[in-house]
Amino acid sequence: MAKHKVTMTINGKSVTAEVDSRLLLVHFIRENLDMTGTHIGCDTSSCGACTILIDGKSVKSCTYLTVRADGADITTIEGIAVEGTNHPLQKAFHDQHGLHCGFCTPGMIMRSIDLLKTNPNPTEKEIRWGISGNLCRCTGYNNIVKSVQQAAAEMAKEKEASV
Amino acid sequence: MFKCKTSPEVGGMGHSVKRKEDARFLHGKGKYTDDVKLPGMLHMVIVRSPYAYAKILSINKEKALAIDGVLAVITGEDLAQYNLHWMPTLLSDSQMVLPTDTVMHQSQEVCAVIATDRYIAVDGAEAVDVQYEPMKAIVNPFKALDEDAPLLRPDKEGQKDNHIYHWERGEREKTDAAIAAADVVVKERIHLPRIHVASIETCGVVASYDKDTEKMLIYLTSQAPHAIRTILALVAGHVGLSEEKIRIIAPDIGGGFGGKVPVYPGYVIAIAASFLIGKPVKWIEDRSENLVNGFARDYHMDCELAATKDGKIQAFKVSTLADHGYTDSSANPSKYPTGMFSICTGSYDYEHAFAELDAVYTNKAPGGVAYRCSFRVTEAVHAIERMVDKLAAEIGKDPAQLRFENFIKKEDFPYASPLGWSYDSGDYKQTLEKAMDMIGYADYKKEQAEKRAQGKLMGIGICTFTEVVGAGPSKDFDILGIKMFDSAEIRVHPTGKALARFGTKSQGQGHETTYAQILAEELGIPYTDIEIDEGDTDTAPYGLGTYASRSTPTAGAAAAIAARKLRDKGKKIAAHLLEVSEEDIEWEVGKYFVKGAPEKSKTIQDVAFAAYTNFPEGMEPGFEATHYYDPPNLTFPNGAYICVVEVEEETGAIDVKRFVAIDDCGNIINPMIVEGQIHGGLTQGIAPAMYEGIVYDDEGNVLNGTLMDYLVPTAVESPHWETGHTITPSPHHPLGAKGVAESPTVGAPPAIANAIIDALYPLGIKHLDIPITPDKVWDAIQVAKAKA
Ligand code: FES
Ligand code: FES
């Protein structure tokens, strides 16, 4: 198997590695880097449990080759807030009971970060469509929607305060 | 309504405190089975059958073994040397771990490749060369009993055909006679399709055998680790895996819903591989393996409901054909091969009922385990609730009115049902009234009349279900002989903080919070000061696990009673500290005080400290208690659900406009968590009602074995759920609680089906089986129009 040297930034740290050409990014993150917050729930890009940010955009890392991420800037659930603090979405999911088993949660949050970046004030319908690439089997989605709404409101306030 | 006894800071029952377990999940620090990584760990990938029924002619391992990094290919022949190629199912049938000659369903395990890396193991699996001789599979369960049907299980002694068992309850003759004499009889064959729980985390295992200590450490996606350990010891004891050497740790679980109760062949192969090789072996199912190798439901029910001409129900009869696949691996209590199906008489008071069931083998995957309701209550409720609606339509009575006229009355509890249950409590009338108020039933009825006049299709569907959970009393309930109690062990430390351990295992239900709240309620120790631990068979007390909404009814009760034992001991210590006699001590949440002199008091924390530092002479030191709870009865949660839909005649598209769910689950520990459970269960109710169903072709190939074609609802398909409660406490549960998680999955499908059929009724459509998809609706509309 051909090996390739890749360099990327993950959660602000630069990482260089030799990887097989077929190694999926989700496995690189989970197995090689031991960051297991990014989950795997399918093999058809259907569930979104593996969602991360690549150059700021949400991407399903289970169908993304590691070599393709050479030079990319990657953020995973472990990197969205300074240790000991919460991203507004993390706080909102806790406040609104937006998680049960937690397996879909990192992917949901990563997707929601991108959603709120492109649409900071989404309607309920826009949130539902916005997270429709991510499956949750536990919550029935009501409280995930509420979590995203709370985070949107808080992030808007933060933004206002910083202007 | 329930009134909180504790302050929000203490966080006892009734407080919507935020969950204690959230932080690790929110930060990506949950620890699920696939996150376990042990030194020297190997990876396993399973080779599976492309055929539904075939002879295995040969398995050639050579090419696979030639791949660098492939260490072994394990076949049925290999396991047969240790007599590990078959295992018992929970209902005393037998299931292949790996086959030696025949495969019985598509995707059945054929052999397993062990390699240093998952990618290499996949290469190895592709390189294994298996030769098959395909045979004609039995796919249709109604054909399984045909004269010329091949005998699928010649391995079973005395097995002459593909019939597994016959079961019946109730009085056949009297029920038949009542039906024959009735003014009105409605009939229907109702099928509840095969579905799969599809928890977002699939199943998996990391098995690690240490040859020196002879200990087998197993990380397992298991809802019932203790029971699984016992089963494993029974199956593999002869090779040296005895129970004290096996430690099962169920780490964080990414959703269970019953799918993580059984022992899957993959687990056993990985455990055997680790045992033979002496290194850790990891096996994580992929999504298709998960979806295709297990199922719930698959009951074909012939129903007859008899009533007087004005709608007083008189008798109900249901004869069921159950498709179990090639083995009966249902996860039911031993004496209940059809689970609690006999709850099928529902929430109504009438005298005669009869239920029977015949189970057959087919060339499909075994399972029958669960889909957020393992004990066949969903099937039962669907049958009665569809039939009650059919009766209402037949005699032209409002389905709500018909229900009111037939409900078991509040004052009739405990109610002896015609098929032998003792319903503990409920107020069905109040619950339905509340649902009707909340949704605005009368207004929707008016709107519907107007819409119908304009030729538009709008439907209103009701379901008023009775659930039966909390298995169960030891005289009736066991799994492989092990009684279905559950347990709690509490240790209060000298500083007044506590650790409590349970025989159950959360898969997202929030036990770390709700169990702490139960103890906070009983002891007055703040829930934040109480750690909850479950899932490790080396440390937790023995219990049967978490499924069938049994944790609160059983382990929750055990927690309350263990806490009360502690309180009794504490009373003696308080008397000693306050220098009065025990009779003079009174308890109020969190403290003991002297009768008539409340200023003289000791907190539970003072008492805990004294239990280690200053206890009465002769008393056993320490502040710990354990209780194994054997419930006196089951609990009977119930609810009234109402759904409003609109159907587009041109396309068959169904729009769920509103859905209101009123649940009576008795006293509530944490309203926020209960509401969350109901939301989740409702989405798992709309799923089989409108989207999910495993589809086979005539050869036994699964046609929708991925999440691209097996349609798990997203946030778009899932409506905005509206919920509410009535509360009639369970009279026999120490906290008055009943259990809740499965109610919505049980109650939602008939409410939705009833609403859709109600919408289509003007066209002459009187029944459709779930999942009711747009194409099914469209086809039915075309047929109805052609007839008209
Ligand atoms: S694991 Fe990537 S979408 Fe399911
Ligand atoms: S919380 Fe379990 S899958 Fe979403």
UniProtKB/TrEMBL annotation, chain A:
<dbReference type="InterPro" id="IPR036010">
    <property type="entry name" value="2Fe-2S_ferredoxin-like_sf"/>
</dbReference>
<dbReference type="InterPro" id="IPR002888">
    <property type="entry name" value="2Fe-2S-bd"/>
</dbReference>
<dbReference type="GO" id="GO:0051537">
    <property type="term" value="F:2 iron, 2 sulfur cluster binding"/>
</dbReference>
<keyword id="KW-0411">Iron-sulfur</keyword>
<protein>
    <submittedName>
        <fullName>Carbon-monoxide dehydrogenase small subunit</fullName>
    </submittedName>
</protein>
<dbReference type="GO" id="GO:0016491">
    <property type="term" value="F:oxidoreductase activity"/>
</dbReference>
<dbReference type="Pfam" id="PF01799">
    <property type="entry name" value="Fer2_2"/>
</dbReference>
<dbReference type="InterPro" id="IPR036884">
    <property type="entry name" value="2Fe-2S-bd_dom_sf"/>
</dbReference>
<keyword id="KW-0408">Iron</keyword>
<keyword id="KW-0479">Metal-binding</keyword>
<feature type="domain" description="2Fe-2S ferredoxin-type">
    <location>
        <begin position="4"/>
        <end position="80"/>
    </location>
</feature>
<keyword id="KW-0560">Oxidoreductase</keyword>
<dbReference type="Pfam" id="PF00111">
    <property type="entry name" value="Fer2"/>
</dbReference>
<keyword id="KW-0001">2Fe-2S</keyword>
<dbReference type="GO" id="GO:0046872">
    <property type="term" value="F:metal ion binding"/>
</dbReference>
<dbReference type="InterPro" id="IPR001041">
    <property type="entry name" value="2Fe-2S_ferredoxin-type"/>
</dbReference>
<dbReference type="InterPro" id="IPR012675">
    <property type="entry name" value="Beta-grasp_dom_sf"/>
</dbReference>
<dbReference type="InterPro" id="IPR051452">
    <property type="entry name" value="Diverse_Oxidoreductases"/>
</dbReference>
UniProtKB/TrEMBL annotation, chain B:
<dbReference type="Pfam" id="PF02738">
    <property type="entry name" value="MoCoBD_1"/>
</dbReference>
<dbReference type="InterPro" id="IPR046867">
    <property type="entry name" value="AldOxase/xan_DH_MoCoBD2"/>
</dbReference>
<dbReference type="InterPro" id="IPR000674">
    <property type="entry name" value="Ald_Oxase/Xan_DH_a/b"/>
</dbReference>
<dbReference type="Pfam" id="PF20256">
    <property type="entry name" value="MoCoBD_2"/>
</dbReference>
<dbReference type="InterPro" id="IPR036856">
    <property type="entry name" value="Ald_Oxase/Xan_DH_a/b_sf"/>
</dbReference>
<dbReference type="InterPro" id="IPR012780">
    <property type="entry name" value="CO_Mo_DH_lsu"/>
</dbReference>
<protein>
    <submittedName>
        <fullName>Carbon-monoxide dehydrogenase large subunit</fullName>
    </submittedName>
</protein>
<dbReference type="InterPro" id="IPR016208">
    <property type="entry name" value="Ald_Oxase/xanthine_DH-like"/>
</dbReference>
<dbReference type="GO" id="GO:0005506">
    <property type="term" value="F:iron ion binding"/>
</dbReference>
<dbReference type="GO" id="GO:0005507">
    <property type="term" value="F:copper ion binding"/>
</dbReference>
<keyword id="KW-0500">Molybdenum</keyword>
<dbReference type="Pfam" id="PF01315">
    <property type="entry name" value="Ald_Xan_dh_C"/>
</dbReference>
<dbReference type="InterPro" id="IPR037165">
    <property type="entry name" value="AldOxase/xan_DH_Mopterin-bd_sf"/>
</dbReference>
<dbReference type="GO" id="GO:0030151">
    <property type="term" value="F:molybdenum ion binding"/>
</dbReference>
<keyword id="KW-0560">Oxidoreductase</keyword>
<dbReference type="GO" id="GO:0043885">
    <property type="term" value="F:anaerobic carbon-monoxide dehydrogenase activity"/>
</dbReference>
<feature type="domain" description="Aldehyde oxidase/xanthine dehydrogenase a/b hammerhead">
    <location>
        <begin position="27"/>
        <end position="136"/>
    </location>
</feature>
<dbReference type="InterPro" id="IPR008274">
    <property type="entry name" value="AldOxase/xan_DH_MoCoBD1"/>
</dbReference>
